[in-house]
Amino acid sequence: MKILLLCILVLCSVVSSYSTVESGESRHISGHLVSKKYSPDWKDLDTRPLPHWYDDAKIGIFLHWGVYSVIGFSEWFWSNWKGGDKKITKFMKEHYPPDFTYQDFAPMFKAEFFDPTEWADLFLKSGARYIVLTSKHHDGFTMFPSHRSYSWNSYEVGPKRDIVGELSTAVRAAGLKFGVYHSLYEWFNPIYEEDKKNNFTTRYYAETKLWPDLKQLINDYKPSVLWSDGDWETYDTYWKSTDFLAWLYNESPVKDEIVVNDRWGIGIPCKHGDFYNCADRYNPGSLQNHKWENAFTVDSRSWGFRKPMTLNDTLSTNQILYQVVSTISCGGNALINVGPTQDGTISPIFQERLLDLGNWLKINGEAIYSTSPWLHQNDSLNQDVWYTCRKVKHSHRHPTAIPRDNDNIIAIYAIFLKWPTTNILLLKDLSTYLHNGVYKIELLGNEGLINWNIKNGVTSIELPDKAKVHSENAWTLKMSLK
């Protein structure tokens, strides 16, 4: 009888514990992570909570690198060339033999100076928290020893190195998260072209090339981000996107860690995914109701390395900070793209921009990492001011939500991108909040409190002498209770 009673008590305890797993959540129960099983449909997949690390990270580095870096026009070079682009056609006639093909560039892609540890050190100094590398762009050349890209991968041609493997190891050793970009389609893959010719009623390419490559990437490299692209020619039913994501969330070795974007077929962008990209360089300038990401390029004209790039083509440090600050204020993450050269180096101008960002974050990172959107994003009086806040309990389940009445706000941050000539910063949206309590205002990176007053609903903040301020490009005021 005692044994029977004990068995009943144990069974009841187990049932009770597992019943606490709520729909769409993963929780530690009795020391084990218990995950919900997701069905292969968007409604159920959309219930998956965003892994905490991604919203906390805020800033990532994007790397477009491959065979297209050799010619140095853009990552779309092959498609544009085949499409009859006059400038490219003229250039090729003048500088290459008449029978030269895109594949002939691959042996020139040597990456002889590629030092993944050096890259990882630069990314760490930039203040980025995650890195996303193109494992395969639309030309089909893979940056890992794909079992389905014979003689068209970096392990067999060109560098003869597993670029994905080497960089992932170095990035993780530096304490950063590693992710991969992967194009679903390939411009001139004959298997894909056959499916396209059949109006995508056949799925030979998806089944024999895409899925095996994706699963190899996930199983071999265990990325924290899968950044999908090249989806727009057909629907998610051809790609079987929901089946793949159900496997990714339920069975893969990164099921509790990985995040994916929204490019999984016609009609899917900005509707489904752990975070939305919506479009290249997407920055709506207002709060969104779903986690999103602004992927933008330091070279304003290309994602891949471009040899004709000029200084005027690159974003300035101030322009980069605008993208970063406005994005994070509105609940997004910033993914900053640089294109490495064919020999495996990162251009000095890109390095300078990333290091400038890192130096700024050393002072102002408190207003960026692990923050939440505040009640206001862009100040209604001063358009050069953007807000974030820090709460005792950050809402990872609803990361873009404004604070609720019962949220305990530790600090409000006002990041201003232009220093006023009078040394008096005028703000409006803080005024009501400052009236409701006893607050102190500090300038991050400087000692001492800042004087302020409110008149006619406008807050005037007396800034110190700019010559004595440590931050050079943008500045952060921190409001907290005394």
The general outline is globular
Oligomer state of the chains in this structure: single chain
Contiguous low-pLDDT stretches (5 residues minimum) are 1-34
Biggest sheet strand line-up: 7-6-5-4-3-9-8
Can you summarize the main beta sheet?
A: 7 strands, parallel
Q: How much helicity do the residues have?
A: 25-40%
CATH architecture of the largest domain: Alpha-Beta Barrel
- Beta-strand percent range: 15-25%
Q: What is the CATH fold-level name of the largest domain?
A: TIM Barrel
Q: Average pLDDT, to the nearest integer?
A: 92
The helix-and-strand class reads alpha/beta
CATH class of the largest domain, named Alpha Beta
CA-atom Rg in angstroms: 25 Å
Span of the ends, CA to CA: 63 Å
Count of distinct structural domains: 2
- CATH superfamily of the largest domain, by name, is Glycosidases
Count of helix runs: 15
Strand tally: 16
Description of the molecule:
The protein is of the alpha/beta class and 482 residues long. It folds into two domains: 326 residues, Glycosidases (TIM Barrel, Alpha-Beta Barrel); 97 residues, Sandwich (Immunoglobulin-like). A seven-stranded parallel sheet has the order 7-6-5-4-3-9-8. A four-stranded antiparallel sheet has the order 10-11-16-13. Strands 12-15-14 form a three-stranded antiparallel sheet, with no helix packed on it. Strand 4, helix 8 and strand 5 form a beta-alpha-beta unit. The longest helix has 18 residues. The chain is globular, with a radius of gyration of 25 Å. The N and C termini lie far apart (63 Å). The N terminus is likely disordered.
